[in-house]
Amino acid sequence: MEEILKQTLLYDFYGELLTEHQKQVYEDVILNDYSLSEVAASLGISRQGVHDMVRRSSRLLEEYEAKLHLMERFVSLREKVGEIHKLAKEQAQDPKMAKIDEIASEILEEL
Amino acid sequence: MEEILKQTLLYDFYGELLTEHQKQVYEDVILNDYSLSEVAASLGISRQGVHDMVRRSSRLLEEYEAKLHLMERFVSLREKVGEIHKLAKEQAQDPKMAKIDEIASEILEEL
């Protein structure tokens, strides 16, 4: 998985276990792609301080995943529901297939 | 949701975030249904100590769910995949439906 996608998913799953401050810095640097210097200036801390904080948050998120594997479970799930969606879509003139397609699409939106 | 089912699911999702000791006591009392007195005797601590420990672990698991809502997301997902499974099963003479049924069953086994 691409690194930025992985970091986004990890944050989506476990971000709420970080402190408010950690969340803010992680969002600015990783999700919103501000530079370390920009974030450092806006928070009045050093560039190195921002860097260390992001690294620590990343490590925490990875530790949660290493223990719980919920992101892994979810990614495998999404792939399978994607397969169902594809199969159902090809035959959506059948009312039951259309219903299955509708449910699969709902699931994919939620995931 | 029934209390014991909820406790089992919460433990399935977040149990790895408890300490080894907390896990052991939680499993004995909640999942394996030993009495507080039995667990207390086997660990050489008071009945009240076991009770407090289980309560604290339950609260921790509930706090993780209150922050992350991952159990809630998975339960909703499982219901929807169950609907797909039901629809596909009714028409499993159609090869595409049979394939969808197979994938849905795989998902339900994983969840």
Automatic annotation (TrEMBL), chains A, B:
Q: State one Pfam family annotation.
A: UPF0122
Q: What does this protein do?
A: Might take part in the signal recognition particle (SRP) pathway. This is inferred from the conservation of its genetic proximity to ftsY/ffh. May be a regulatory protein.
Q: Which HAMAP family match?
A: UPF0122 (MF_00245)
The protein's organism comes out as Hominiventricola aquisgranensis
Protein name as annotated = UPF0122 protein WMO62_12260
Entry GO MF terms? DNA binding
NCBIfam families reported for this sequence: YlxM (NF045758)
Q: What family does the entry list?
A: Belongs to the UPF0122 family.
Q: What InterPro entries does the record tag this protein with?
A: RNA_pol_sigma_r3/r4-like (IPR013324), UPF0122 (IPR007394), UPF0122_fam_protein (IPR054831), WH-like_DNA-bd_sf (IPR036388)
